[in-house]
Amino acid sequence: MPKAPDPLDTSVARDGVIITRPPPGLAPTVAAVAGLGWRPIAASMLHVAQLSLAPNTPRPDALVLTSGQAIAAINRPEWHDVPCYVVGHATGERARAAGFRHVVTAAGTADDLVALLRAALPVRGLLLLAVGRGYGDDMAQALRAAGFRVIRRCVYAVSPEQRLPAQAAQALAAGQVAAILFYSTRTAQAFLAALSAAQAAMLGQVVAVAMSDGVAAALACGPAWRAVRVAARPDQAAMLACLGKAR
């Protein structure tokens, strides 16, 4: 039987959980963390700017999304019947809410999504891979190697915040933070880069919750944590299971 993780420090003083992900995922995570009895502290470490998709972009045989951030740019009513292959459950829910009628969800990583496309589409058609600026090159190459025609389009741009948001900085300085949630490698890197020396020293009393081994590896490049917990699956339910209920 696997050993249960050490309980978090749930004293009255240390009841805060910092959430570093950007909108639109930030708000539902704040609500979910509050539902477990913690005091959520919204501290998005990435600024996301939406970019437009060229009007003359050809209609693809399938849409491929590695992040829900891409949905706004490709949300054309005339494309709602195009099969939409997405990286994970949360992105799938957002795509359905936007009106896409044929949404297929991978197991949570870009590699999972490539494997799904290779298995699901024996006829190698035209894929529109909608990604953030600086993302998706390796995935586009893998899909082309599998025989697909791929149009890669950057439909949003991500830039890191330069310092911790005030509420998070204050809670960390006051010793009120029990855990910090990290949903991506880039968010983890932005958080670590924004720390002052005094803030970094406080992390020895804080548990980091990472969505994947890759995110945990990024966190290992920074100061020492009380512990780093890695979600069993790359989704929010597994992240929250690592956090547990406040006692």
Describe this entry's structure for a reader.
By secondary structure, the protein is of the alpha/beta class. It contains ten helices and eleven strands. The protein has a six-stranded mixed beta sheet with strand order 3-8-7-4-5-6, sandwiched between helices. A five-stranded parallel beta sheet has the order 2-1-9-10-11, sandwiched between helices. The longest helix is centred in the middle third of the chain and has 11 residues. The protein starts with 15 loop residues before the first strand and ends with a helix.
Describe the SSE topology.
Layout: E1 16-19, H1 26-35, E2 39-42, E3 46-50, E4 62-65, H2 71-74, E5 84-86, H3 89-98, E6 103-105, H4 110-120, E7 126-132, H5 137-145, E8 149-160, H6 166-173, E9 177-182, H7 185-194, H8 197-201, E10 207-210, H9 213-219, E11 227-230, H10 236-243
Parallel strand pairs: 1-2, 1-9, 4-5, 4-7, 5-6, 7-8, 9-10, 10-11
Antiparallel strand pairs: 3-8
Helix pairs in contact: 7-9
What's this model, at a glance?
The chain has 247 residues and is an alpha/beta fold.
Largest beta sheet: strand ordering: 3-8-7-4-5-6
Q: What is the number of strand segments?
A: 11
Q: Helix/strand-derived class?
A: alpha/beta
Shape designation:
elongated
Assign a percent range to the helix content: 25-40%
Task: Please tally the helical runs, counting DSSP H or I stretches of 4 or more residues.
Answer: 10
Features:
5-stranded parallel β-sheet, 247 residues, 33% helix, alpha/beta, 11 strands, single chain, 6-stranded mixed β-sheet
